[in-house]
């Protein structure tokens, strides 16, 4: 019996004829109607077979709710009409921006379009910023290959781009003597297969992380784990790409494509029609929609949400690295996969994330119960963990494929597209390595039309905004003598000066919003969450960009911030 027949039998047994599978050109398509999103996801996971098929497309119609349309910019103009770049990159997340920089190593004209008002607005600013050692990845997985390569590249990339990066290491803790023995034996697997991990005794662990649960009886330690600011690195990649000749256009959404004879001829955007020679699909959770427009849809994305809590700097002093416990199952909830405690590069602690299937690709709400479940689970690692130390919460959406693997390849049917899809975790870790391969594939496609040389003027070095709070008093005084703006502290929680905020507004990828400045130089990231410094930052943006205060947005047009005293606002309202 063929695999397709067998899977149809299984689907019939589970869904009673409401779902069927068919094969076409080494792809498996699921069709039918279901009213439970979790059932749609499980049908996909039941049917997927990566050895037989290039991909699984889940076309089961969801009848239990309304899938929201993609958020698009309100802006409509003709700025890009008629443009014909060599390479058009769709998506200004870490993957798209890393690819843009990689492409500037060749003599190619690069245009990156991002539908949001700034870069790193979706998953690339909504994650743990952990550079994974690759503990739970299986040999043979595409994501394992890119994770291992990406992890190795981090020291050099971050040095070139002047982005703080720390190889903090990661502990997986074991509780009880039997479990510690298991960990001791488990280290053999990691010594043989990698990533290099070694057993740490109870005594040694508690010496290194004295505030964690005394019940930890041993740990596996992975020294190659690290932490980075994921949005900081995304912006740094884009700035270096622009410095090397690429163009970045935000507020620009790809809305349709004209495909003829298996080639993309043009793309429709809210800013006109673009005629690129090569298209790169780095659209995160929307990579399936881009593949559909390109008539090259051989995979599907099932979005998976994760929520994290950020703790105050004081709570972060309890730990030095990344710590989690093996097999924590204090919650009985389905889909809650684990997470841990991460000391971030900016010395906060992240608690989370969880993992919940969702049909809403841009739903960044946070749910109190999910946060509570994660806290309950992580308190096994640190019993003193307390919600009162939380300063904020956030959610991000993972772009998971049914193969649960990355899809990094040239188009299956359409010739001038490269997909960087299914980039769920560890996408931050893997981005530098993904960029290497996608950049090469873009060059190969372009070479079919014209010779492509190396860009001899490519400069890998970017100088970031000065981080005044990391300087010695002497260095700081010299800086202030040169420019007194560095002596005026605007954000007291994070010790950010006026000078740094002004610098952030005048970079090669400029920003115009409160959140844009926050992502670049951190005012508002501290305990008060911008309550004190927010109005001051707005004032600086207004002055520097010569805009009226009322026109400064929090994160995008339509998100204006109310300002003035309560009395003034009341008077204005009347
Ligand atoms: C909670 C959570 C924690 C995670 N933790 C880690 C971690 O610790 N380490 C790690 O390695 N990975 C982690 N990840 C995974 C990592 O965040 C992602 O793999 C990575 O950010 C994906 O980057 P991207 O550029 O592919 O996607 P995105 O950052 O989502 O970028 C895609 C961009 O495309 C744009 N776009 C979409 N459609 C269009 C269109 N039609 N036109 C124009 N633009 C469009 C979007 O607006 C978006 O900005 C985590 C993920 C989550 C959700």
Q: How would the blueprint of this fold be written?
A:
Elements: H1 3-15, E1 19-24, E2 27-34, H2 37-47, E3 55-58, E4 61-62, E5 87-90, H3 94-103, E6 110-113, E7 130-131, H4 142-161, E8 165-166, E9 170-175, H5 177-193, E10 198-201, H6 202-208, E11 216-222, E12 226-228, H7 230-243, E13 247-249, E14 254-260, E15 263-269, E16 272-274, E17 278-281, H8 287-293, E18 301-311, H9 313-316, E19 322-325, E20 340-343, E21 349-352, E22 356-357, H10 368-378, E23 390-401, E24 407-410, E25 417-421, H11 427-447, H12 473-482, E26 489-491, E27 496-497, H13 498-505, H14 514-521, H15 534-545, H16 566-573
Parallel strand pairs: 2-3, 2-4, 5-6, 5-17, 6-13, 9-19, 17-25
Antiparallel strand pairs: 1-2, 7-12, 8-12, 9-11, 10-11, 14-15, 15-16, 18-21, 18-22, 18-23, 19-20, 20-21, 24-25, 26-27
Describe the protein in words.
- This protein is α/β, with parallel strands linked by helices and 574 residues long.
- It folds into four domains: 3-62, Alpha-Beta Plaits, CATH 3.30.70; 78-165 and 225-300 and 402-464, FAD/NAD(P)-binding domain (3-Layer(bba) Sandwich); 166-224 and 302-401, 2-Layer Sandwich (D-Amino Acid Oxidase, Chain A, domain 2), CATH 3.30.9; 468-573.
- β2 (27-34), α2 and β3 (55-58) form a beta-alpha-beta unit.
- α3 packs parallel to α7 (230-243) and α4 crosses α11 (427-447).
- Strands 9, 10, 11, 18, 19, 20, 21, 22 and 23 form a nine-stranded mixed sheet that branches.
- It has 16 helices and 27 strands.
- It is globular.
- The protein starts with a helix and ends with a helix.
- The site of flavin-adenine dinucleotide (FAD) has 40 residues, from α3, β18, β23 and α11.
């Amino acid at each position: 019996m063929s695999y397709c027949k067998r899977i149809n039998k299984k689907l019939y047994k589970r869904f009673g004829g409401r779902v069927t599978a068919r094969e076409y050109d080494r792809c498996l398509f699921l069709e039918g109607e279901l009213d439970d999103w979790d059932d749609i996801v499980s049908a996909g996971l039941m049917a997927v077979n990566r050895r037989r098929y290039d991909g699984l497309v889940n076309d089961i119609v969801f009848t239990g709710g309304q899938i929201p349309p993609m958020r698009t910019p309100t802006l409509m103009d003709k700025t890009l009409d008629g443009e014909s770049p060599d390479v058009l990159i769709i998506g200004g997340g870490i993957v798209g921006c890393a690819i843009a920089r990689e492409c500037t190593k060749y003599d190619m004209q690069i245009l990156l379009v991002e539908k949001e008002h700034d870069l790193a607005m979706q998953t690339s600013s909504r994650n743990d910023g952990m550079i994974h050692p690759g503990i739970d990845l299986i040999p043979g997985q595409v994501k394992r290959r890119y994770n291992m390569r990406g992890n190795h590249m981090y020291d050099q990339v971050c040095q070139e781009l002047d982005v703080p990066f720390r190889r903090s290491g990661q502990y997986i803790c074991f509780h009880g003597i039997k479990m510690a023995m298991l960990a001791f034996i488990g280290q053999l697997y990691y010594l043989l297969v990698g990533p290099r991990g070694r057993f740490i005794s109870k005594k040694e662990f508690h010496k290194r992380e004295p505030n964690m649960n005394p019940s930890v009886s041993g740990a596996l330690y992975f020294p190659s784990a690290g932490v980075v600011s994921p949005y900081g690195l995304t912006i740094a990649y884009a700035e270096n790409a622009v410095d090397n000749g690429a163009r970045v256009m935000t507020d620009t959404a790809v809305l349709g494509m004209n495909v003829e004879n298996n080639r993309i001829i043009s793309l429709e955007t809210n800013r006109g029609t673009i005629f690129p020679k090569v298209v790169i699909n780095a659209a995160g959770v929307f990579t399936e929609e881009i593949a559909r427009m390109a008539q090259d849809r051989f995979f599907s994305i099932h979005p998976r949400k994760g929520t994290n809590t950020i703790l105050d700097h004081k709570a972060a002093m309890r730990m030095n690295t990344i710590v989690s416990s093996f097999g924590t199952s204090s919650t009985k909830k389905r889909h809650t996969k684990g997470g841990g405690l991460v000391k971030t590069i900016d010395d906060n602690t992240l608690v989370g994330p969880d993992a919940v299937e969702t049909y809403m690709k841009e739903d960044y709400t946070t749910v109190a119960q999910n946060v509570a479940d994660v806290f309950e689970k992580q308190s096994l690692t640190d019993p003193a963990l307390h919600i009162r130390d939380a300063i904020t919460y956030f959610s991000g959406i993972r772009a998971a494929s049914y193969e649960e693997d990355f899809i990094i390849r040239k188009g299956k049917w359409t010739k001038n597209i490269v997909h960087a899809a299914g980039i769920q975790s560890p996408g931050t870790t893997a981005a530098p390595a993904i960029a290497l391969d996608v950049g090469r594939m873009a060059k190969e496609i372009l070479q079919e039309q014209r010779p492509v040389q190396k860009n001899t003027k490519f400069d890998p070095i970017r100088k970031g905004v000065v981080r005044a709070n990391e300087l010695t008093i002497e260095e700081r005084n010299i800086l202030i003598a040169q420019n007194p703006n560095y002596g005026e502290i605007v954000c007291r929680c994070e010790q950010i000066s006026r000078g740094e905020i002004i610098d952030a507004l005048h970079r090669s990828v400029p920003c115009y919003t409160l959140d844009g400045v926050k992502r670049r130089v951190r005012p508002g990231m501290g305990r008060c969450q911008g309550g004190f410094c927010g109005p001051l930052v707005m004032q600086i943006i207004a002055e520097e960009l010569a805009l009226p205060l009322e026109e400064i947005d929090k994160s995008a047009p339509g998100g204006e911030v109310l300002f003035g005293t309560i009395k003034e606002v009341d008077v204005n309202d009347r």
